Amino acid sequence: LIMSDRGLVFSAGRPNQRVSAAAAAASGSSNKSLKGIIAGGITGGMEICITFPTEYVKTQLQLDEKVGAQKRYKGPIDCVKVTVRERGFFGLYRGLSVLLYGSIPKSAVRFGAFEEFKKRNSDAQGNLSTGRKFLCGLGAGICEAIFAVTPMETVKVKFINDQNSANPKFRGFFHGVREIVREQGLRGCYQGLTATMMKQGSNQAIRFLVVESLKDWYRGYRGDTDNTRPIPKLLTGMFGAVAGAASVFGNTPIDVVKTRMQGLEAHKYRSTAHCFVKIWREEGLKAFYKGTVPRLSRVCLDVGITFMIYDSFMELFNKIWK
User: Fold this and answer.
1) What fold characterizes domain 29-320?
2) How far apart are the first and last CA of the chain?
3) Which is more confidently placed, 214 or 198?
4) Is 310:32 a contact under the CB 8 Å cutoff?
5) Which pTM value belongs to this model?
6) DSSP labels, 236-269
7) What is the number of other CB atoms lying within 10 angstroms of the CB of residue 152?
8) Domain boundaries in the chain?
9) Using an 8 Å Cβ cutoff, are 146 and 78 in contact?
10) DSSP 91-120
């Protein structure tokens, strides 16, 4: 008789065999979460170097609050042209270090948390129900929002905004962090926490639900009962792109509010709700979908690449790390 997370289980065999099997299972489960953290961190660093220019354009468009002819950019293509003309090609990479420092822990927390939640909520065969896929993704998104995304995104948006001001005051990432903490306290790095939790939670809930569901569908179509068998990486990337597109249309308004709450003009808003109402009244519904085109292309590429890289490293770790 063995006590497990799912209750009492009757097991045949000699005591030493049962103890060894239980220890191996526990070790494997623990390792999977750790593998998820390491693979996630590597994935985050590689992915952001590829997709940063579209993130830069999206942020610039969302911070462009002027109306009509006063707007600095006519659209995403114009934003790219203006940036390259004024600052050169590498102007599209201004603020990369800030996002790179944030992307690695963000991805590590997200995938590590998901693997942990998945381990605790899957059935005896390692399968998750549709509802539990959604909840595991939601939990992973909330964890990354609290422990990584909010402070790093706040610094990133302030840094990019500062670099485009007439007299930039941040000399670099760490200098920017010191200035923000000195002037606004630790709270200055946690502006827009509620909006970020909503954004990341809904993002990852949708993405993991879609990707895991598509993987299960493919295994069923293939007649494969082994859910640990690798899926072709190109197909995984396609599943990720579909998941990314689904998440964009679901939470772009939340992303706009989050960006405003974390910008240098955040003092204009008393709360996340006040920011939402103010944008609605002064700029209309269209303002909530600023940056949708560059965000859609970025997110589809981002999520597709992320799941391809992550699955590749997890497959490698499972071979060499027992």
Assistant:
1) Mitochondrial carrier fold (1.50.40)
2) 26
3) 214
4) no
5) 0.70
6) HHHHHHHHHHHHHHHHHHHHHHHHHHHSTTGGG-
7) 23
8) 29-320
9) no
10) GGGTTHHHHHHHHHHHHHHHHHHHHHHHHH
